[in-house]
Design a protein that fits this description.
With 162 residues, the chain is an alpha+beta fold. It is 38% helix and 17% strand. It contains four helices and four strands; from the N terminus they run ααααββββ. It has a four-stranded antiparallel β-sheet. The longest helix has 30 residues, at 11-40. It starts with 10 loop residues before the first helix and ends in a 9-residue tail after the last strand.
């Protein structure tokens, strides 16, 4: 093939190549932003801690509404806990006492804000997540979300400095 026999210019093919390259670059940029953005904002790599934060948020909403059976179900990640109450040594009565009269904030829980979360434990995404919650405006409570079964634990094994 010589320069005089060169194939004819195909504008549609060149546009397609250009658009594929731009699209691939945009996808790579989006993945990088999601990867680092979640970590920098305190929600874990790829925002992987958001489900745990959501669970803790719902738990405190139930406590604020004084819906202790719902909060108890969220604590054990078992919406049907009433069907098999004997499964748990930690009774609803004791749970209610612990989150009312023996509450970690020593007052009724009337407001909360989920501040930040951090992966804890071994592995790429850890075995658990520490979720920092600001309760009643000024009390920090650190909840621990266990990844393998979705249950909550208080107090968390570590406190977050933020």
């Amino acid at each position: 093939m010589t320069l005089l026999n060169a194939p004819e210019y195909d504008g549609r093919k060149e546009n397609l190549k250009r658009n594929v390259l731009i699209g691939a670059g945009a996808v790579v940029a989006l993945i990088v932003v999601l990867f680092f953005g979640g970590y920098l904002l305190g929600h874990g790599w790829f925002f992987s801690n958001l489900p745990a934060e959501h669970r803790v948020n719902n738990f405190f909403k139930a406590l604020e509404a004084k819906d202790y059976p719902k909060a108890y179900g969220l604590w054990f990640n078992d919406a049907d806990w009433q069907q098999h109450q004997q499964k748990y040594d930690y009774t609803l009565k004791r749970f209610t006492e612990d989150w009312t009269t023996e509450s970690p904030v020593s007052a009724p829980i009337v407001s909360h804000t989920v501040d930040i979360s951090k992966t804890d434990g071994s592995g790429a995404f850890g075995t658990g997540i520490i979720v920092a919650v600001r309760v009643n405006g000024d009390h920090k409570v650190f909840m621990y979300y266990i990844r393998k079964d979705g249950t909550l634990v208080w107090p968390a094994p570590h406190e977050l400095g933020y």
